[in-house]
Specification:
Blueprint (H helix, E strand, L loop, with lengths): L2 E3 L3 E5 L4 E7 L8 E5 L4 E4 L11 E5 L4 E6 L8 E7 L2 E10 L21
Parallel strand pairs: 2-9
Antiparallel strand pairs: 1-3, 3-7, 4-5, 4-8, 6-7, 8-9
Amino acid sequence: PDVSVVNSSVSGHEGGDISVQCLYSSGYKNEDKQWCRIKDKSCYTKGRTDTSQNPSVKISDDGRSSFTVLMTGLRLTDSGWYFCSVGEWQAPVQLTVTKPKQAPTTVPATTPSDSKIDM
């Protein structure tokens, strides 16, 4: 395929980050590389720095055959379908963001204050 992804399903925790590697044919190295959210049709384009770009999404291109999308500070609302786009080709990716697991809280052991025995 002209465009594919290493993992078509990725998951991360709220507040964490994920990266997605998108692979493309060498003939597309000069095409726009994009990471798009299907739900609201918002796209992040490599190398563009206009104000609509989200600072928590970074795209880095190796210039040969792949680009990597890094999403940081994940929110639960980031869950959904996205796609890597190169030229007119797209490869879908499903992102699942979950709440971090809570560490079990331990109740400190208490000793009754009247356990001291006066001799």
